[in-house]
Amino acid sequence: MIIIKNDKEIDLMRIAGKIVAETLLLVEKHVKPGITTAELDRIAEEFITKHGAIPSFKGLYGFPASLCISVNEQVVHGIPGGYVLKEGDIISVDCGAHINGFHGDAARTFAVGNISDEAKRLIQVTEESFFKGIEFAKPGNRLTDISHMKYNAMLRLQVSQL
């Protein structure tokens, strides 16, 4: 069931979303060869708490970190740790922040230094299909409609060749 939010609630949701967006921008600045995923997590947690929010993921079902960080082929929701990022890696960073009763949540994929053409293409196709899905997020459309649009966009972009 979807609960329609009033203007005040939407403004509160924006605050949580803004903290997440700014956290991901900060993390992006630190993504480079030689940094550990644990250090990226520490940077994010410090930023989130400094802005009065609580990391959404930390402690949830025992999850030990503020960010979910997956490197290369690793499946989503990876746990940050001692892995040292190296040139050519791609990382997915999922961030959540809770403030004023609402959670903000977003994920981004970042290149570590210079990456292969194949990895660049993967990031490009993923981003383009995401935005195609958003174009289809309109009243009356279902989540399956959005997913179908994203899938079709990936086929048009020839993602199967990656």
Automatic annotation (TrEMBL):
It catalyses: Release of N-terminal amino acids, preferentially methionine, from peptides and arylamides. Its cofactor is Co(2+); Zn(2+); Mn(2+); Fe(2+). InterPro entries: Creatinase/aminopeptidase-like (IPR036005), Pept_M24 (IPR000994), Pept_M24_MAP (IPR001714), Pept_M24A_MAP1 (IPR002467). Pfam families: Peptidase_M24 (PF00557). Residues 12-148 form the Peptidase M24 domain. Keywords: Aminopeptidase, Hydrolase, Metal-binding, Protease. Binds 2 divalent metal cations per subunit. Has a high-affinity and a low affinity metal-binding site. The true nature of the physiological cofactor is under debate. The enzyme is active with cobalt, zinc, manganese or divalent iron ions. Its EC number is 3.4.11.18. GO terms for cellular component: cytosol. One of its GO terms (biological process) is proteolysis. GO terms for molecular function: initiator methionyl aminopeptidase activity; metal ion binding; metalloaminopeptidase activity. It comes from the Bacteria. Removes the N-terminal methionine from nascent proteins. The N-terminal methionine is often cleaved when the second residue in the primary sequence is small and uncharged (Met-Ala-, Cys, Gly, Pro, Ser, Thr, or Val). Requires deformylation of the N(alpha)-formylated initiator methionine before it can be hydrolyzed. Belongs to the peptidase M24A family. PANTHER family: METHIONINE AMINOPEPTIDASE. This is Methionine aminopeptidase.
